[in-house]
Amino acid sequence: MVSPRRKRILLGAWLALLVAGIVYQGLARPKYSYDMVFYVGAAMGIDAAPSGLHELTFDELRSHVPPQRFSDLVEKSEYRARIYEDPRAFADNLRFYRIRPLYVGMIRALHELGLDYVFACHLISALAAAATFWLFAWAAPGNSLLPRALLAPLLALALGLVNVGRMAMPDALSALFFFGAALLILRRHTTVALLLLVTSVTVRTDNIIFCGMLVAYLRFLAPVEHRIANRSFATAAAASAVLYLTITLLGENYGWSTVFYHSFIEKLTRIDGPASVSLADYCMALRACIAHALDFQGFLLGTVLIAAVWVFREGLRDRASPVLLHLALLSGAYVALHFLLFPVTWYRFFVCQYLLIALAALHLTDEATARLLPHHRGGGSNQASFKGGVSQLPANKDSH
User: Fold this and answer.
1) In the chain, domain spans
2) By three-state DSSP, how is residue 350 classified?
3) Which of 18, 267, 278, 310 is the most buried (most CB within 10 A)?
């Protein structure tokens, strides 16, 4: 009979191995997405002359991207070829990406430490995805070791976390900020949670939507012991709004209509002014996305999980903090709202939300798992360690 202490050690070693595997996947099998071109350009453009930035960016990519992948980046479509050939088109499109200052700044900082820009992009994503997985596994319920040892890794894989760790995009970093903030909310460390939520706007400006939802929830809808004071709410709301406006103004953000047109109607090269989107354009994009929704990894599973959480919400209240149920339902609402504003089901946008829904679903299965596999029980302690899930974590007594 393996002692509870040895089980925890073995579990910790297994999860550490999985974390190392996620980092390895991100660095050994990176995805050279087209967005990487502009993130490298944005990082190099912090102090480079605009006139030479186009050439510097593609020279950097040519030096550090495999030849076949580089050919894909510059020849795969007419749009990519135009960006490669036309510095003005490159500069105009760069404005879509300069509005992620924290991610771009981290790429530049890693370059200053001696890393090339391409590797720096992937290192940030790989480490962020690995850290998010560690938090997810740590927060899984603890009555049985099965959720942490098997179900958590499978869900992280199925919901796209591993793949996001291979992309040169800010989505893994965004997921880490939001998932970390959610766990802090569950522990009633609301001050640090609010700081992460506000800062997330500098990772992706559209994060202000989920940030606003969580801040409003903490002020008006959370259980009394989790609510924040009016002053904290006003400070967080004002800070996130100021950050958003500052980033969009300094970064010369094009706005929703141009982003929508560029993403769904026609790829723009030289951009002379805001694009217009008609109701027919919007409906066409929405219809096309709905028709292909099941083709996207994680979307079907995420939908099934949120449906399960909703159907069995009463049982979840008995097994976990009601705040976890609220966070899962807010995550589902955010996915739906984001879909209406920007009709895509790309899993990279929603990894954190899917993981929060999955965490709630794991609490639903925990008691049944423990009854079916009693020999997998983890020791029954209420301490905030690998033995206990988020419902057992100690509260912050200084919370409002």
Assistant:
1) 4-30+95-392
2) coil
3) 18
